[in-house]
Amino acid sequence: MTSLPKKWITLISLGILLILVACQGESDDQGSNEENSDAANITEIVGIEPGSGTMNIAQETVDSYNLDLELTPSSEPAMVKELQNAIEKEEPIVVTLWQPHWMFSEHDLKFLEDPKETLGASENIHTMVRHGLEDDQPSAYALLDNFSWEIDDMNEVMAAFGQNEDVEPHEAAEEWIKENQDKVDAWTEGIEPVEGESIELAYVNWDTELSSTNVVALVLKDLGYKVELTPLDMGIAFESLSEGDVDGMLIAWLPVGAASYSEQYKDDIVDLGPNLEGAQQGFVVPAYMDIDSIEDLPTK
Ligand code: PBE
After folding, report:
1. Under a CB-based contact definition with an 8 Å cutoff, are residues 287 and 108 in contact?
2. How far is the CA of 292 from the centre of ligand 1 (A)?
3. What integer best gives the mean pLDDT of the chain?
4. What is the distance between the alpha carbons of residues 147 and 212, in angstroms, rounded to a whole number?
5. CA distances (Å), 132 to each of 21, 136, 141, 190, 244, in order?
6. Rounded Cα distance, 75 and 97, in Å
7. Coil/strand/helix, residue 21
8. Which atom of ligand 1 is nearest to the CA of 207?
9. Which of 49, 60, 75, 204 to mutate to test ligand 1, by most ligand atoms within 8 A of the CB atom?
């Protein structure tokens, strides 16, 4: 007679215990959901081409904030695709991205705060030429020296081909030139046209650099140049310019992004200064994510 209630008591106790454990588990989950559930699901930062300025400073950032994340090399188009896929499913994702970029007009994105400024407070894009260009090709040198435009200008060209597969970068550049002849006239004012001279510009296959390089190439053509555009990796572009194998390039984000390359080659390259001011690099997330700072990401 006494054994039955005892068994019941044991069973009831066990039941209560199970319920308590289950509740405990649930409330734990809720707790971690409230604090950075998005950050907890992040295991990587989706990067771009290895050897880019962006990847160099992104790795420095991972190290300096002691992040427990893999910086995955990729490419600009592949990174953009991954970001678009994540947004479609409302999944958490962190990418290396920059302004100007047409992705900011397509999606609600935010830069994570970077209190250590390892990704740069603000960047300018510099034009660089080989030593000797000023004497050998004064007209091309003068145009490259004069060329400078605003973020909105670059955005216009970039959006025209970045958001429409049927538009080539040179077509977008041509369209922009047609609509902004006054700006182009200011760059070319007083420059002597040439006949049959050749000039070679290196560039990296990024939308920002495709925009500026294609615009400048068309203006050089109008001045009479035969223009060759050579796509290279960033490190190779710096090396080629330092050796005089190419004449110029419009790819160096400074003071931070391309700092290691520009430091390495500073004696062998002529820096003509910014052709665009107020750009920005960073770790970027969709606006629906509940984190705001690089410091909210998981650390080691
Ligand atoms: N960017 C934009 C990168 C890639 C494209 C120029 C900031 C870089 O310099 O590495």
Report:
1. yes
2. 22
3. 91
4. 9
5. 76, 6, 10, 21, 9
6. 11
7. helix
8. 5
9. 204
**pLDDT value of position 9:** 52
Residue 164 tokens read as 């429409």
How far does the centroid of ligand 1 lie from the alpha carbon of residue 293, in Å?
A: 21
Quick one: residue 117, left, alpha or beta (phi over 0 = left, psi -120 to 50 = alpha)? left
pLDDT digits (tens, 9 = 90+) for 95-128: 999 999 999 999 999 999 999 999 999 999 999 9
Q: How far is the CA of 101 from the centre of ligand 1 (A)?
A: 11
pLDDT at 38: 80
Beta bridge partners of 280: 99
Average pLDDT over residues 219-231: 98
pLDDT tens per residue across span 172-212: 999 999 999 999 999 999 999 999 899 999 999 999 999 99
Q: Tokens 């958001």 map to which residue?
A: 163
Q: Which residue has the tokens 């998005």?
A: 38
Spatial CB neighbours of 132, under 8 Å, sequence gap ≥ 6? 244
Q: Which amino acid is at 163?
A: Q
- A 10 A CB-CB count for 14 gives 10
